[in-house]
Every structure is written in C-alpha cells, then in structure tokens.
Design goal:
heterotrimer, A alpha/beta, B alpha/beta, C alpha/beta, B: alpha/beta, Rossmann fold, nine-stranded mixed sheet, two-stranded antiparallel sheet, C: Fumarate Reductase Iron-sulfur Protein, Chain B, domain 2, 3 domains, five-stranded parallel sheet, four-stranded parallel sheet, 20 helices, 13 strands, about 10% strand
C-alpha cells in the first residue's frame, strides 16, 4: 500500500538480529508519520517463533518454505522481490549487513526502485522522507530525500534504539507462498562454517580493549581481559606489548600489525604514536585512558579519560557487568 | 576462465574532505581519488584464481581521475587486458549509473565470472557489484572472503557477524562482492607500472547511456563531528566508569 | 646438490719435483673443489647488476665481527655466501631483508664484497619476480608512491609543523623567492611527532643565524634512498625525477638536509639522474656557522652526552667531525664516546629499509639493533643520546623504554640540544 513501511527481518540460527528490532522501532515511527502500516517480512522455514516476536508491526508477512531454511542471496531476493512488487510499500527497510547487501541493491536494480544505503538517520515529515547516510568511512554524512513513490533503505546496524522495536503484542501473521518455484536455483546453500573457538581475529571484532605500555606488566593484562569480556569484545595491543611477548602478534594494532575498524576502540595506557594510530584511526568510537594529558592519543580519541587505568578499569568492568545484569 | 574485475575510484580519505558552497557535494578542488581498496582485493582474488586455474583477468574502469594509472597498475600486477569506459565521470557518478555502464561494458567484453569489491566509501545508492549482478540477471553473493572453483561452479564463503560464515555453491557466471582476498593484495613495482604505461594499451568499451535520476536527491552533506575531537570524561573512577557506560549505551555499544 | 664425499688418497711413496718426501703424510684427502656445490642460487645473485661482488668472498669472516645484525642474530655477509653455496635461495630467504646497508662489512672486507649494492639488487629482483614483500615494507612502498611519505599522510599537511615553529618559515611554493638555502625537511621531521620537534628547532636556529632559507612544503617528497636500498629502484627513480623537477623550479645556492639518507641520495644518487646540488647535512652547514652560533649558545646544558654516528653520515659519507663540533660548542655538555663509534659506529637498524622492517627483523634477532645501541649508551654513563638522523629519535626512544631505561637516558636530536641552549 502506498504509505506502508516494510521491514525485512534478518535472522541467523533461529535468532532475530538486533538490527531487525532497530528497524522495526524506526519503521513504526515512520509508518505512523506517513499514515501507513508497518509490516514485517519474515522469510525462512519454520519461522513461527520469529514472526511472533515482531509485534511492533501491524502485521507480519511470513513466507515459510523449506527452500528458505537458510539465507540464500538468490532465493531470498526472488521471494522478497515478488512481495515488494505485489504490495508496493512506500519504504522497504533492509539491514545494511552481509545478508542485506545481497537483497537491497539487487532489489533496487531489478524493480527500478531507488535505494539509499548506509542509513543512520531516517525521518518523515508530511510524507517526505529524509535519509541520512554515513559515508566516506564516517567522515561525511549525506542527507537525501526520496523523490519517487517507493524506496528501499538499507539501514546500518546500531543506528536506532532497539527497544522501540520490541513488543509483547502478538502480531497478525499472513502466510504467503513463494510465487515462483525455488527449485533449481543457481545459488545453493551448503553449510554454515563456525569460527574456531580460540581463534580471535581482531580485525573482525566490533569492540576492542587495546593495551599499551601503561599496562606495565604481563600480570596486569588480566584486568584488560576482564573488561573486554564484560564488553563482549577482545583485547588488542600496541607494539611494545607484542614485542615483550605478552600477547601474540595476531593482537597487534598499528603500522606493523593489524589495521582495525571496530565500533569501539578503548585504549588503556596507549600514548598514541603515529605507528599505532595508523592502525586504529578509523574506529567508530575511540575512548582513551592515559595518565598523560598531552598524550597524542587524545588528539584522535572521541573521549578522553586522563587518569590511572588501574583505578578506572576495575570500576568500569564492575559497572558494565552491572549494566548488563 | 575469463574473470572481469570492474574497478571504481573513491575520494582518498587521507585528504581532509571539504564540502563545497552548495553544501550538497564534496569540494572537488582538494579531492584526490584512489582505487577503492575492496576492488584491490577483488583484483587480487582474480589474479590468484588465474594462477590456480589459468585463464585471463580483465579490468574495466570508468574514465575519471587516476583511471589510467589504476589500469596500468593492474597490468603490472598481472592483469591481461584493461578497458576504460569513456564518458567523463570526474564530476562523480552514482552507483546505479556506474553499475549500468559496467553491465553494458561487461556484455561486450564477455566474462565467466565477475569480481568486485564488496562496497566503497561513497556507495550512497547501494553497492556497485550487487547492482551490476541484478542488471546482468546473474546470481550473486556479497561479503565473500573465500572463493574456489569446482568445475562450472564456484564455492564461496560469505561472512556473517561474529565470524560465522555460510558456504554457497554458485553456478557461473556470477558476481561476487569480495570482502577480502586470501592474501594481502600484491605490490606493483613502480618500474613495472611504468613499463605498462609504455607498452600496454588501454582498450575502450562503450558503457551506453544511463538515466539521469536514481530517485533520490542529496539535500546536504555535513561532517558528523563538530568542535574538538576528544571530549573529556572527568570525575572519580566510579563517576568516569558510569559516564562511559552511559556513553556506550547511547551509542548502542552495550 | 652435487656434494661428493672426499676421496682418501694413500700412496706408498711421494715424489715431488724428483725429491722423495715419503712419510706418514702420504695419506691425504683429495681437495674438494668449488664445483662440488650447486651454484645456481649463487649465480642468480652474482648475475645481477650490483650483485657480482658476492662471488669474490673468500670466507675470511672479518665482516661477521662487525656486522650489526650478526651481533644480535645469526646473519652476515660471509654466512650469506656460505648459505648460497649450500642451497639457500636468497630471493626466497628471510636473510634478504635483514641487511641495513650500514656498510661496516665493506669497510673491513679485503675482497670488497659490497653488500650495499648486492642486497638492493637482490631485493629488486625479488620484488620484480613478485615474491612476497614483508607487509610493513609493502605498506611503506605503497604510502610513499601514493603520498610521497612513508606515513601515508596528506601532502597538504607536510608543512603543518611550521605554525608551531615560532619563527617565520619561507614556503617557496607560495613566495617563489630565490633563497640562499633550500632546506629539504624530510618525511619524518615533517610528520612524526618527535621528528617535528627537530624541524621546529632547525627553523629557529636558521632564523637566529639570519639564514635566508626556504622549504618546499607540499611539493617536497620522500627522497627515496631507503626505498632504493630496500629494492624498489623504480619508485626511487620516480621520486628522484619528481624531486629534481621541483628543485629545478626554485633558485637556491645550497641544499641543506635534515637527514643523512637524503644527504646520501642528493649527493650520490640524484646526480646520476641529472640533479646536481651543493648539498650539506645540517650538522655540516651549522658547523660551518659555528662562530656565529657560539655566542647564541648561552644556556648551559649540563649533561653527559654520547653521540650516535648515523651510518649514512659517517661510514657512507665520512662525516664524523661536524656533529661532534656542534655538541662541543654547547656549554656544559660533556661528550663521551661509546665503544663502537665513528668508523665502527653501530647501526640503529633503520637504514636500507630497516625503518619499515622492524617487526619482520624482530623474529630473527635477539634484540633490536636500537636496543643494543641504547645499552651501549647507558654503559658509558650517558644522560643524553644525541642523534642527527630523523630515523633515530623514535627508534631509540622506543628502545629506551623497551630496555627499561626510561627516565635514565634521554634521546635528543642535536638540533634540539642547540635550540635548548639558545633559549635563555
């Protein structure tokens, strides 16, 4: 319908991803502002439980088919394409994630509906939709307005509050059959490959607690590890720590180590030599703890804590554990 | 196996990005362009496949800024043919248009497999690779970190969050958005690049005409941060800890 | 490989030139000859332009005693020769990247086996053959070719340090004025935090001396000498051509450089490409103005100072006196020499591309060369380790911390010491 907002639910291993709820919360606001309905779309096999969690939406379109048991770029695109073509929603929100990237752009090209990607801000004013995209590695934001009747928006995870997208309400579920056969497709799902449990790739961690000389001794690393565990991240380090043999080389950030772009980079006792900064300057949020107020790390950090890490880290770990319950 | 690698240039973020007086576009005066780093991984993966299975690697790019250097660098790394799509794109081009031009070019060049970078820093209207796949009506997988060939199919690993990967078997021809090649992209020695400038030829391939509008317009551009970079968090250790927790929550990090 | 077992020769009698010298020594081993070895790998190196002299080695091992890398590891020219005889492919070996081209081996080599030419030639071949380059080095090559500096910083920021110098600095691309001295600042003094300290000090010293000088700001690019020695000759040539083009745009009498590597490039390599200049290292230039400088040095710098000879100023270019004269002119300074100094000065590890191979070399040495050098400075009781190469401040400061001498030894560029002494 012309003013409806569709949200494509994303799930892996029978669990909806956080971004789904973030999109639902935002989608609710936009649908209300446009006078349309909020519709969640779930593709999968045996997804009743998932659909039941989407109560913020006015209704849920559920396409339940064995061929959709696992995400497949081809099968999901075919089904989603026919749903969007059929229902003509004003906006279709798709997560700008690995799965979403295989849906949003192809759908836009196939259906000739404009796409605005990397959305971190979305608003609607008397039906006019404005999208803020985070581009150029976060250095420039671009605000676009939609000039056509329909649009696809691909939404960056973490952009909107997830709470507004959760509800105890049971949504009305509409079962829809795939309009075309999903047999003999060109993309076949084979299996999921789980990461090796001990294998930490710091370039892929979203949260890093990074330690430098200020940690003083190998024994103190446990403090940082505890903080990282509480945050749900991993620890990395600047070169001296690696050189001392306190952590393996795979944990090194900087010129001679890894370049990382986590969502959170929290430094403990790192002064911020250019060799280090080179490897972490693109982190989304940088919080630096250092005793020296003139440490160059503060030139690049978003938040600066001038103080002793041995005081701050235990307090912080405690608080985070508390906050998570 | 003919592997086509469409490459695109993006503003070099080493230079401070300035927004021009219209407030709607980047100031082109100080803008420097460089090859999209993910495209560099796509090329590396293509070259590795060629080394394993034979065949040829063909690179195509749009006519703008450092296009020639980009193409000759590809030759120095081991690409076999290089194409440029004429039509001055120095003023910038959206991804839908770029993908349509690549699609037209790809059809006339011919290919068995297309590898592109997974994304680029300026993909406001979507990622070129996946748009290209749709324009060509080809199967696609994005965020690929592992790729091998088995007969007429490719086995790819697609990366999800938290290190989980999905393995797909894809019938070729197909388009893959490469997140990372198996190795660090190789180095092109300057003497080889210079040699390529002297001895290799850039071929021209038509990208057709593209529609002017993509259904959305840019209202304004702005820099997200304002004022001084680091904001001081002060107080007792416990105060500081509390403030950091609030901050993490507000940024969706907790 | 074609090594055969030595054949035992036993004879009843031995007659040499008609004289019977029979005895117990009749039992002897047949001499093994060099063609017992598979020389493919050796010839791969000696066939390279610049690689020839490796074949001249006669295994006397004088080089091993002075090789700075062998002192902290197991590497040296003689050993390279031996390993090539016994099957090592240098182009595939980690040994390819360990030489810092410090030239101490050549100084003592009776056969003039020249690693300063051999290693760059072998590295260049490896790079052209597409062999793996250590990541850190590849990143430096990439940055230098894209941005003109190893840090990968914007060229537009190259002269950002000027605004904190406290004295006016003539930016030649803006003023286009003819000057007496064109000061080539260099990448590390332009971008590195501690390097900038030296650049600012230099600007103040030149201003205090009333020198008519200018800098090239964003038009200046990495000189390329270390890139050349690390095997990227094509990149060196490109940089040299671009720098020469820029130098030729401006009128100046002398070219003064902050770094010994630039000095070496401009003095010996750029002329081959058509760029001939009257070039001086800053220590030479300032030592030439010692009489004007002395009255300005009023503040005592009471410290025991030891000086580290940069390989590319000392051994490569024979300048040992100018930096010492400058140090001695600073009131209060007590100059002490380290055990290895002047012609036998120990290498900091940064030359020949070593600046961008630290984490690579780390796996093949028991400690960094810079760490070893810091220990030597501490041994002679120095408070200050004085340097005059922009590579060294950061290298030695790191080493001071990692060897646990933080607070005991301070690393200062001679420029900073002079600047300190000029401030009342």
């Amino acid at each position: 319908m012309p003013n409806d907002v569709f949200v494509v639910a994303e799930h892996l291993k029978n669990k909806l991803s956080d971004v789904t709820f973030e999109m639902l919360g935002k989608g609710r606001e936009i649908a209300d502002a446009c006078g349309g309905k909020l519709v969640a779309v779930v593709l999968g096999s045996g997804t009743k439980d998932l659909a039941a969690q989407l109560g913020v939406a006015d209704s849920v379109i559920s396409v339940d088919d064995p061929a959709l048991e696992h995400f497949s770029p081809e099968a999901y695109r075919i089904v989603l394409s026919s749903v969007v073509k059929d229902r003509q929603p004003k906006l279709t929100l798709i997560a700008n994630t690995s799965m979403g990237m295989d849906l949003a752009a192809p759908l836009s090209a196939e259906l000739n509906i404009p796409l605005v990607a990397y959305c971190k801000g979305l608003s609607a004013d008397s039906g006019n939709v404005s999208v803020t995209s985070q581009l150029y590695a976060g250095k420039v934001d671009v605000e676009s307005s939609i000039t056509s009747a329909q649009a696809i928006i691909s939404v960056l995870a973490g952009s909107f509050a997830g709470d507004a997208g959760r509800s105890e309400r049971t949504p009305s579920i509409e079962e829809v059959r795939p309009s075309t056969s999903l047999n003999d497709l060109r993309v076949k799902f084979r299996r999921l490959v789980e990461p090796e449990p001990s294998d930490v790739d710091i370039t892929k961690e979203e949260k890093l607690v990074s330690i430098g000389r200020g940690i003083q001794s190998q024994d103190n690393i446990a403090l940082a590890e505890e903080l990282a565990a509480a945050l749900g991240g991993a620890i990395s380090a600047s070169r001296p720590i690696i050189d001392n043999g306190w952590l393996p080389k795979s944990r090194q950030v900087g010129k001679s180590g890894m370049s990382v772009k986590p969502k959170l980079y929290l430094t403990l006792g790192i002064s911020g030599a250019p060799e280090h900064v080179e490897g972490m300057k693109d982190a989304a949020t940088i919080i630096a703890v250092n005793t020296d107020p003139r440490a160059p790390i503060f030139d690049i950090a978003d938040y600066a804590v001038v103080g002793d890490l041995f005081d701050i880290v235990p307090a912080l770990t405690e608080r985070i554990k508390g906050a998570k319950g | 196996m003919k592997i086509l690698v469409p490459m695109k240039q993006v503003p070099d973020l080493v230079e401070e990005l300035e927004i021009d007086s219209s407030g709607k576009r980047l100031n082109r005066d100080f803008l420097k362009f460089k090859l999209n780093e993910f495209d560099e991984h796509a090329l590396e993966e293509a070259l590795l496949l060629k080394e394993q299975h034979g065949g040829e690697v063909v690179v195509v790019t749009l006519d703008m800024a450092e296009a020639d250097n980009l193409l000759f660098t590809a030759i120095a790394k081991g690409a076999d043919k290089i194409f440029k799509i004429p039509g001055n794109c120095d003023e910038g081009i959206d991804c839908h248009s770029a993908a349509q031009m690549f699609a037209t070019a790809a059809k006339s060049i011919g290919f068995d497999l297309i590898l592109t970078g997974v994304q680029a820093a300026d993909d406001r209207d979507g990622q070129v690779g996946m748009l290209l796949a749709a324009f060509l009506g080809l199967p696609h997988v994005s965020v690929v970190t592992g790729l091998s060939l088995e007969g007429a199919s490719a086995i790819v690993h697609k990366e999800y969050a938290g290190g989980v990967m999905a393995e797909f078997e894809v019938v070729l021809p197909a388009v893959f958005g490469i997140q990372a090649a198996r190795h660090t992209p190789r180095y092109a020695p300057v003497s080889k690049v210079r040699q390529a400038w002297k001895t290799s030829k850039i071929e021209t391939v038509d990208g057709g005409t593209v529609p002017a509008s993509n259904g959305s317009v840019v209202n304004r551009m702005f820099k997200p941060e304002s004022g001084k970079r680091a904001e001081l968090i002060e107080g007792s250790p416990d105060d500081v800890a509390g403030k950091i927790v609030d901050l993490l929550k507000s940024r969706g990090l907790l | 490989m074609g090594i055969t077992k030595p054949i035992v020769i036993e004879k009843e009698t031995a007659v040499v030139d008609g004289v019977d010298i029979s005895g117990a020594w009749n039992r002897m081993f047949e001499q093994r000859v060099i063609w017992d070895y598979d020389l493919r790998h050796m010839e791969k190196v000696t066939a390279l332009e610049g690689g020839e002299s490796l074949g001249w080695c006669y295994q006397c091992a004088k080089c091993i005693a002075v090789c700075p890398v062998d002192i902290v590891g197991d590497y040296g020219p003689r050993k390279i020769f031996r390993k090539l005889q016994t099957g090592m492919d240098l182009l595939e070996s980690s040994d390819l990247w360990l030489c810092t081209t410090c030239m101490n081996c050549l100084r003592v080599c009776p056969k003039e086996v020249n690693m300063v030419e051999i290693m760059p030639a072998a590295r260049e071949q490896a790079i052209l053959d597409g062999k793996a380059i250590p990541d850190e080095l590849q990143k430096a090559f990439d940055n230098i070719s894209k941005y003109g500096n190893p840090q990968g910083e914007s060229a537009r920021k190259r002269a950002d340090w000027v605004k904190d110098a406290g004295v006016p600095v003539n930016i030649l691309p803006t003023t286009k004025k003819p000057v007496d001295v064109l000061w080539y600042v260099g990448s590390y003094p332009s971008y590195h935090g501690r390097g900038k300290d030296a650049a600012k000090a230099m600007a103040r010293i030149l201003a205090a001396l009333g020198i008519d000088f200018g800098i090239l700001a964003h038009e200046e690019k990495e000189d390329g000498d270390s890139v050349r020695l690390a095997g990227e000759k094509g990149l060196f040539e490109m940089l040299a051509e671009e720098n020469i083009k820029v130098f030729n745009k401006y009128r100046f009498k002398k070219l003064v450089v902050t770094g010994p590597h630039e000095y070496n490039a401009f003095k010996h390599e750029y002329p081959k490409l058509g760029g001939e200049y009257d070039v001086l290292h800053y220590t030479q230039f300032l030592a030439g103005h010692l009489e004007q400088l002395k009255p300005l040095l009023r503040k005592r710098v009471s410290a025991r100072v030891t000086f580290h000879d940069p390989c590319y100023l000392g051994r490569h270019n024979g300048e040992y006196v100018a930096p010492r004269n400058l140090l001695k002119a600073i009131p209060g300074i007590d100059v002490v020499e380290m055990f290895r100094c002047k012609e036998n000065g120990y290498c900091c590890g940064g030359g020949g591309g070593g600046m961008w191979l630290d984490s690579f070399s780390r796996d093949f040495t028991s400690e960094r060369l810079s760490e070893r050098r810091v220990r030597e400075a501490v041994e002679v009781g120095a408070d200050i380790l004085a340097v005059c190469c922009p590579y060294e401040v950061s290298r030695f400061e790191d080493a001071v911390k990692s060897t646990g001498h933080d607070g005991k030894l301070v690393v200062r560029d001679i420029l900073e010491l002079i600047d300190d002494s000029m401030r009342m």
